[in-house]
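Recall that a protein's primary structure is simply its ordered list of amino acids. Everything else, from secondary elements to tertiary packing, is in principle encoded there. The following example makes that idea concrete.
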Amino acid sequence: MSKNKIATELLGWLKVIAFAFIGALIVNHTLLASALVISSSMENTIMTDSRVMGLRVAYLVSDPKRFDIILFNPPDDDTSVPYVKRIIGLPNEKVEIIGGKVYIDDSAEPLDDSFIKETARGDYGPYYVPDGCYFVLGDNRNGSHDSRQWANKFVPMEDILGRLYFVYYPSPHFFS
């Protein structure tokens, strides 16, 4: 094989690798957001050390909804590691936690919390969620650092990276 053919073949492979790398960067920064769950705050829904993927485009056509699990930049932390929590309070709502149960806008009935790891402890709030912001809690309420403890209690829409779509490691599964 001549040097010219080797150089042409090598250049062809370099182009393929460069296009694949650029394509992966574009997808990662426009369509998908990934994170490593480094705490037990979402157990038993998402286990510690799970790797998760969210859709950045999920909220282009609709607003986040109560109980969506989101990836977001934490309000009180400059880390580059996204947090993963469940949306509980929506914009312009009053959120109050009494005896571990969550009440929205003085409702007589608490929110369904059948997904939490164990019965939550404590009373918190009331919190008044500002327009364009969300109140989030972990599913492991007794082991989660979330809106209840943060100095900046709410996650602004612009800090939401995406809606959790699936866990891809160690036990792959999708979320609806």
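Residues 64 and 87 are 8 Å apart (CA to CA). The longest strand covers residues 160-169.
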